[in-house]
């Protein structure tokens, strides 16, 4: 069975990104930055109402405007528009300014229809705005268990809809050359996007290129409507077209994380173990998508019941967002666990309470280690107190903890490795780098296998012209890509060994490649430099291809558990939450690049801070129109809001490579919410924890 | 409008590459730098001295007007409507009329409402949001973008430190952070952690690299101190 | 945004001659450009007033300061006298916006900025200020709106953070217009929506704030601001306080609230409560209670009443002790 080298020179070390200098110098060309001769700029006209029907559209004034080169109708009269931001028509013009003028010149008559703009409105309205989603009932003794319980707690918890806020918005630049389409797209899936474009236009192939990409977080897996429209306009105009969404469009129409609310009743026995769980849950994922999330979460309970309702409101649809469903599940479950622990025994340490309720899976040991390690790093023993800080003054301090879990197995990936007679090494893989560091993973792994330095490898990703790889989602890229690259390099190396062995009068299996040399194992002198070795290839390079399937068993795996701790101070006279410190213990298998792996954890925590304290998509209740589709009232943490964040990687190299993108963002908000409850003595039930909500919770307590 | 403004832009002769500021290929790989429509300083309409004229205010536009922008020590002629922001002029207009784009696209458009900092440039020594400045306001002023932060052939210590500390992930906010950090170090070579946070409060990073950005600024500051900065 | 002509005014006279309801003054641009981009404003011309000679200096004036309207917030923050003698103003400016915004925004712009109410800012909402039928904030999401003067036609909060500090210092605003120059007391400068819903101050379309006149400070002062985020954010409530002290006793008190009313909101009852009292936690708390009297919160901003109390109490104590609370 293939496996990673037992002694690794590069994997697990801290390697700066190979594309770092391009990013710090402005030299990195994102799709948004692609400027081509004759480029046109496109924009989309969108619904100004939460729900309406198009009565008529007159594109004439736009078409006749000087500088406008193409118009494209997305919807037709009679079509329904389901949310403010739903697409209607698009124009391409010589400048952005003209495109904007043209959009505003389009005359549309609307028939306004009744709308639903909040979960509450949907629940009140009933079907079709509110529909029963998944129901889950296991165990037969919920009522009995609750009757016999040592403690029962009932609570309501919730999380608001948030949006991805990718800094580079969705969209692409489309260029036709005859029947050939090339798209520079901001996407998490170059192959998926290329294929979807080819299918739409019924052409044999469309090439999708993503050299640099300004964040996706789960929302960028295909061309979307705006990508198709850009290509349509480019075709009509006979010129390349750039269409990237503006910030408001990005908020309204490019995906979001659904809201999640839960009314839960749960019970523990006298040992403090969960014995019953009964939940009604609901949330909204937009006008046509559900709002599912896992619950119960992490902590097993045999007797359980859950009824879920999806609220369909006149808002943009959800898309996967960094660990879909899990941050919501974690917020509800870990808040409940703390409240239950407090009800059961106010003096019981919540860490101890969690240890009593861990699953009996592979994660049990991992969680145990993480809880103990994290507790030590946050100063739990020294600073934890039962709920409610009694210190004088308005600032109250508290600690909180929460857990999360994720899969993260190896995603589809193929790679090729080409060794040239002059020693050059080319590695290609049709994956993409969303900022996660995949561009560096490719040469890093290749160099490890070939015994070279990263600079010796020319790694290429970010094009559908390269061997197929799956979309970068679900924390699956690193596992799949690293295994595919390793296998391709291993195969290429075996071919090289076969050609070099006769020259060294040894068997190919006696050879190894390390320290930039190819030599007989045990005798560094009996060999060649890498360049000398490759010289045997002459003008016939070796190209080896591999699929991650050839090595995934043993080299990559899935399923991680993570624990996070928060130390907060709350000003009870203003409701302001200040973070003192976050500790994130991340289970990450075999670390490929320690530097970027830690960055991923850091980024996950910060996204969790935003979720817990700041972010909220707000729709005007009476009209359903967005009030904060911007980056001013859609709050995101800035430098001054960031506490010390202690990232602890729990290495398990024997488990192989596991993706790390998603897991570290899961438990942060719950840990913060628990710390706030610990500080002020009362639960603030819904995140984000705004001054208003904290003050209202305190008022309820008094 | 002055007579001068009706002259066609000066023929492109000097290329930005010839200035020597961009000659390190590794550093700006992928930037298709080539001949721009460069002019001599002060040649553009309202450039420099025209601004000082005390009498009858010049009314320009709304039709496109030819203006000169001094970006990273080099003058460019662009023809823009008054409503074109400095950000859009840099990203979309420097390349117009040339077959080889000049492409100063390092400055990013993210919120376009003066909230996120991705479009930060240094205008006459102060950081500003280039999305909230009109291009026509910038004639006669010195504009430094992320492409102009490097010191000759060498990356600026702040750029080196960002790479080493991994003060970036997707990199889309990075130009803004680099420019803000550089402006901070220009003004205050040895900032405290609090001063670093405060100086970067106008830049949003969605991937969440803040802590490493702070480390990078500290590292660069220390290195500049060692070098006698 | 809709296209416009651009006029670069080199003198006050040139600016005034160019300005009208269709030709708006452009200063720092941080507020105006956003409104143009949203089509909330669509003037035929912009008149750049930043090049006007004499409006970008801070000078000594009758024992106080004469501050040009084009002085940026960064320049004010860096000014030793502002920091040393006018702490309430310095503290009010300290966290406005972001470093970039403070580099761009001018003091005149801060006083004349249009509201950041989201119902005003997005053209798809009904807004009386924009000539609409009603105020969408009243039945809408008004978490950040006014709690005082909420029975008027518009429940915006005034966006100026400098305003309350200038009120407690008794500042004057120098206004230039076609008929020459006049001074207006800072409190008379700001107007309530009930007076004229379409504007926020007394300026006519062809008038310009040229200077702010700060009299010499008369005692101790401070500003306290409550906000959600530490980084770029707007205040949820703020209070500026100036105290004339005799020993521990407040002989005179001037207290003004920000971010809670359509104008900087003078808290006269709180001033009266503090006058003649020894300043301590108790008396500051009593004055704070008075400051919140008369508040009529909207459906979603009752919490701001508490924030007013906290801001006033902390600002009083900060002024008296010279320490941030």
Write up what this structure looks like:
The complex is a heterotrimer of chains A (702), B (229) and C (325). Chain A has 702 residues and is of the alpha+beta class. Chain A contains 19 helices and 29 strands. Chain A has three domains: 20-28 and 410-457 and 466-555, Aldehyde oxidase/xanthine dehydrogenase, molybdopterin binding domain (Aldehyde Oxidoreductase, domain 4); 34-113 and 170-244, Aldehyde oxidase/xanthine dehydrogenase, a/b hammerhead (Aldehyde Oxidoreductase, domain 3), CATH 3.90.1170.50; 320-408 and 557-701, Aldehyde Oxidoreductase, domain 4 (2-Layer Sandwich). In chain A, helix 13 (438-450) runs parallel beside helix 14 (477-504) and helix 17 crosses helix 18 (668-680). The longest helix of chain A has 28 residues, at 477-504. Chain B has five helices and six strands. In chain B, helix 2 (157-165) packs across helix 5 (210-226). The model of chain B is unreliable at 1-56 (pLDDT under 50). In chain C, 31% of the residues lie in helices and 21% in strands. Chain C has helices at 12-18, 32-37, 73-78, 80-85, 87-94, 99-104, 107-112, 118-121, 136-139, 162-168, 186-189, 268-274, 281-292, 303-321; strands at 5-8, 23-26, 45-48, 58-61, 64-68, 172-177, 180-185, 208-214, 220-226, 237-246, 249-258, 265-266. A five-stranded antiparallel beta sheet of chain C has the order 4-5-8-6-7. Chain C has a four-stranded antiparallel beta sheet with strand order 9-10-11-12. Chain C is globular, with a radius of gyration of 19 Å. Chains in contact: A-B, A-C, B-C. Chains A and B meet through helix 1 and helix 17 of A and helix 1, helix 2, helix 3, helix 4 and helix 5 of B. Strand 1 (58-60) of chain B pairs antiparallel with strand 1 (5-8) of chain C, so a sheet runs across the interface.
